[in-house]
Structure formats: structure tokens, C-alpha cells
Amino acid sequence: MSEAKPAAHSSDRGTSIGTLLEALPYIREFHGRTVVIKYGGAAMEDHELREEFARDVVLLKYVGLNPIVVHGGGPDITAYMERLGLPVQFVAGLRVSDEATVEVAKMVLVGKVNKEIVARLARHGQPAVGLCGDDGSLFRVSRRAAPGGEDIGFVGRIERVGVDVLHHIASDYIPVIASVGADRDGHSYNVNADEAAGAVARALGAHKVIFLTDVPGWLADPAKPESLIGQASAEQVRDALPTLEGGMRPKLQACLEAIQGGVGSAHIIDGRVPHSLLLELFTDAGIGTKVVAAP
Fold first, then answer.
1. What are the distances in angstroms from CA 33 to CA 63, 171, 196, 240?
2. Which residues, including other chains, have CB under 8 Å from residue 66's CB and lie 6 or more apart?
3. What's the angle, vertex CA 179, arms to CA 87 and CA 233, rounded to 5?
4. pTM of the complete model
5. In the chain, where are the structural domains located?
6. According to the model, what pLDDT value does residue 16 have?
7. What is the pLDDT of residues 257-282, one digit of tens each?
8. Which superfamily is assigned to 31-292 in CATH?
9. Is 143 helix (H, G, I), strand (E, B) or coil?
């Protein structure tokens, strides 16, 4: 005899049914579509948020979407660098990376963070496969400078994404990609995870690319959360980029390049909000900032 379940209050049932009905047209619209998710910030660091993110991504797979996770791991890299006595420096939101920094980044992202995400997704019901730019020649990169022309070492710009490996894996598994890659000569590079997510979305012709971060979205005034820009055109983003500093710049640059490359829309959302991914995809209101080709 099955254990009796407590009776749900009628208002709770009504709310649950309303939520499902609101989600239904979006599930139907997105069925079979590819959604690239840049995973980072508090959503990677807080235990409860990590578990909720994994459940949400597994749900996307169950309802017929093709989620692809691209991740960084900045806080973990910084922590290990500090333990090793290595200098930590950023220019325009990009980590200055000498050979030692790249070695640490590769060990942390590929050997630790990536495998933790893969294991978490599997624990919540969907098998995943961990990748980095070296696997299946996924990323071919070249050395880049900071936006102001500063030399930032072994930081790579993605020249090519080898989508064949992703097509093979994504049919049955959730790909989880660590943002490192190599050039033609086999030298390893640290790759900004926002740029990597945008490049993957472009190469796959994704329906959406979503960036999880630690702010409500793109703020007109970074000191005022209420100044959230709910929607912006690619032209507005392009005009604003020269005035931006810090971590928002690479995110908006990745949004712009994704839209210019044919991605349907790009979103910057607050990963500190529980189930922010589902709120953006499956509710009428959505959250964060949406970037589209034109108003």
C-alpha cells in the first residue's frame, strides 16, 4: 500500500496548474531547439544553487530541448593560484594568463570543475559528457590582446568551433564544455567562458544563449539594481561596449557576436535567483536582459 500524501491546498494546486499552462507554449516552441548555457558565478558556488541548476538542465533535456553547458570556474582558479603564490590580475574582465596560470586553469577547469558538473547532472537523471577545447578539436584558438591592446598572455580567441563532436554527443548526452583550447601548434590557452559560450551558440545556430551571472542583468547604472535594461538591440549593445568595464563587457560582447552570428536571442540573467533558467525560458515575464537583433 502506497504511503498517503498530504492533501494539497486548492490555491497551491491552482498555482501549480497555472505555472504548467504558462510553460506549455514555450516547451512546445523550444522542443528540439539548442540552448547554450554559460554557467558561472554564484550558481556554481552555492550548494543549493548548484543542485537546482543541475535539476533545471536535466528538466530541459527531458522536455525535449538540447541544452549545452559551457562553464568557467574563475573563483576556483583564483583560489588555487593564491595557494600556489601566483599573481592574480585581470584586464577588462579577462584574466592575465602566463604559462603557469594556463596550466592551473586547465587542471582546475577540466580536471575538477567539469567533472563535478558532469557528476551532478548524472545524479539528477541525465548522463553528461565533459569536454574541453582539445577534445575532438572542438576549439581552435589564437592569441588575443585585451580590448585596449594590452598583452594579457595566453588568452585565446576562438577561431573555429568543431561542431561535429557536439552533434554526435548532444543527441544522447548533455555536453559540458570547459573553456580552454589550443592553437595550431598545440599551445594551451585560457578562453573567456562568455566568449566560448557565444562561439558555441553561433557555430550551432542555437535558438538561445543564456549567461548566468551575479547581477540582475545589464544595468544602466551598475550601482542601481533597479536600472535593469530589460531588452536591448544589437546596435545598442555595440554602441555601449566602449564605455563598459569589468565582467559585463565580455558578456555583452559575446551577446553581440552571438546575435550577429544568427543566434535567435541572448540573455543575461541572475544566477543567484533559484531556477532562474526556467523563469527565463518558461514564463511570460522572463528575467534579466534580452538582446535581440533589432527592437
1. 11, 12, 19, 30
2. 32, 33, 34, 35, 170
3. 105
4. 0.89
5. 31-292
6. 58
7. 999 999 999 999 999 999 999 999 98
8. Acetylglutamate kinase-like (3.40.1160.10)
9. strand
